[in-house]
Design brief:
Elements lengths: L1 H7 L6 H23 L5 H7 L5 H29 L1 H20 L4 H29 L2 H33 L2 H5 L1 H12 L15 H24 L4 H21 L15 H30 L5 H7 L1 H17 L5 H22 L6 H29 L6 H28 L6 H19 L2 H8 L1
């Protein structure tokens, strides 16, 4: 069977294999990123079905996914490069699909939260192995374009999640948000099975103790940051999570200096380009995730838009983000990726500053929101794609998935910090007062400009 399947598969490096890998990777990435945002819109419907559950209990539906996803990304990238990206991709996609079905048929909040945690495990394996497959099957001359398309899909998924979620919930209820993953997941598995598998690198699996410390450490930090506003930043639980998480990350770092197969490949961080792209990824992720959520909250609370209308209102930004990603992938050369990171970050920061200066309680969608949102989307797509291109260009082929996992981890940690900052700012203001939201937009502008400030270090190695 394996021999017959390999015979029918397009050869690695061919145009057909490249397109096939990009197609399945983009589909899997769309699902994984979509599920970080799409559930937010289903909260009111969830509360109607689970009347005995408190709001804090329901927030675990989101938290279980994001924390597990962030905690395992770096680990999954290492495993993908060791055992083979196709193998991890297939198993992760199957797990994600099964967990989606369990979520859709959940009979209570505990079952739903557990299924969402399993989804996070699957998503963490899908993302780095997906991009690893793309880079493996795409000739070097076309990798930048492929990453641009992959980035466009990820950008669209993050931005279109609220509108798609609102539509699904409005027509079929909250369960459809999860069950829609079943046919898509099965199709991805069936198509990706035709790809030629990569040969395992022969390297040892990473140190299990250091790997466990790294996963628990990142998970603890992200969870602590996520719950800081609800539990109180000075509460014992939050301090224990943050402190314990940081200690475990330090333990993982120390163990990585002494192991032949370390949990963290420290030499990656000695590459100035890779290190600088991760700094930009952290800062830009904080600004972007905060912006995506605060935009919806502003439209809903200040302008009185319904969840569905608010989701549709931000959709043009999703398409402009895809355009920005494709333009960078096709038109910007390897030596100019640093400039695309800077330009995209500054453009996004300028759009956030414009929101701070121009928005108010008066509805001005066409005159103000729409053009600002389109410019901001262009900046998001350009910056994210250029960051990914610059980072992958600094990686050896056998480390494609490992490096991607680390890059996505820094973005997710940044996103958690951004959402925590948003909650802390809004907590000081009346939910129906626009002042808090405008201050969040200002903070997003500052964070995005800070991401641009790291680009000289990217430039130093990409010229």
């Amino acid at each position: 069977m394996d021999g017959e399947q390999a015979h029918q598969s397009p050869p690695a490096g061919s145009s057909a294999a490249s397109k096939l890998a990009l197609f399945v990777a983009s589909g899997a990435t769309f699902l994984a990123v979509l599920d970080t945002t799409v559930v937010n819109i289903a909260f009111s419907d969830l509360r109607s079905d689970f009347t005995d559950a408190s709001l804090s209990q329901l927030t675990w539906v989101v938290t279980a996914y994001t924390v597990v996803f962030a905690a395992l990304l770096a680990v999954a990238g290492r495993v993908a490069d060791v055992i083979g990206r196709k193998q991890l991709f297939l198993w992760s996609t199957v797990l994600f699909t099964v967990a989606s079905v369990l979520s859709g048929f959940a009979t209570g909040v505990p079952m739903l939260v557990g299924a969402r945690a399993l989804q996070g495990v699957g998503a963490a394996g899908m993302i780095p192995s997906a991009l690893g497959l793309v880079l493996q099957h795409t000739p070097p001359a076309r990798r930048q374009v492929a990453v641009g398309v992959w980035g466009a899909v990820g950008s669209m998924a993050a931005a279109v999640g609220p509108s798609l979620g609102g539509l699904l919930v409005d027509v079929w209820g909250w369960r459809s948000v999860f069950l829609i993953n079943l046919p898509i997941g099965l199709a991805i598995v069936a198509i990706s099975a035709r790809l030629v598998g990569d040969t395992p690198s022969g390297r040892k699996l990473p140190d299990p103790v250091g790997t466990l410390a790294l996963a628990l450490g990142i998970g603890g930090v992200v969870f602590g940051v996520t719950q800081g506003t609800d539990w109180g930043w000075g509460s014992g639980s939050v301090l224990a999570l943050l402190g314990g998480g940081l200690v475990l990350v330090v333990v993982a770092l120390l163990l990585s200096t002494r192991r032949t197969a370390p949990a963290i490949e420290l030499d990656l961080w000695r590459n100035r380009t890779f290190a600088a792209t991760n700094v930009s990824s952290l800062l830009f992720g904080a600004a972007m995730y905060s912006y995506l959520l605060s935009s919806l909250l502003f439209l809903n609370a200040i302008w009185g838009y319904s969840e569905l209308k608010a989701g549709l209102a931000v959709t043009p930004g999703a398409f402009s983000a895809a355009l920005g990603a494709i333009v960078v992938g096709r038109r910007v050369g390897p030596s100019k990726q640093w400039a695309a990171v800077a330009a995209g970050s500054v453009l996004f920061g300028a759009s956030c500053a414009a929101m701070f200066l121009l928005l108010g309680t008066e509805r001005q969608y066409v005159a103000v929101w729409l053009p600002i949102g389109i410019l901001g989307g262009l900046g998001i797509g350009a910056a994210l794609t250029a960051i990914s291109n610059a980072a992958t260009a600094a990686l050896a082929p056998q480390r494609f998935a490992s490096g991607t996992g680390l890059l996505m981890t820094t973005r997710q940690i940044g996103g958690a910090l951004g959402i925590a900052a948003l909650a802390a700012i809004l907590e000081r203001h009346n939910v129906l007062d626009d002042t808090g939201y405008l201050q969040v937009f200002l903070a997003c502008a500052i964070g995005s400009v800070a991401a641009a400030a790291a680009t000289p270090w990217i430039r130093a190695r990409t010229q």
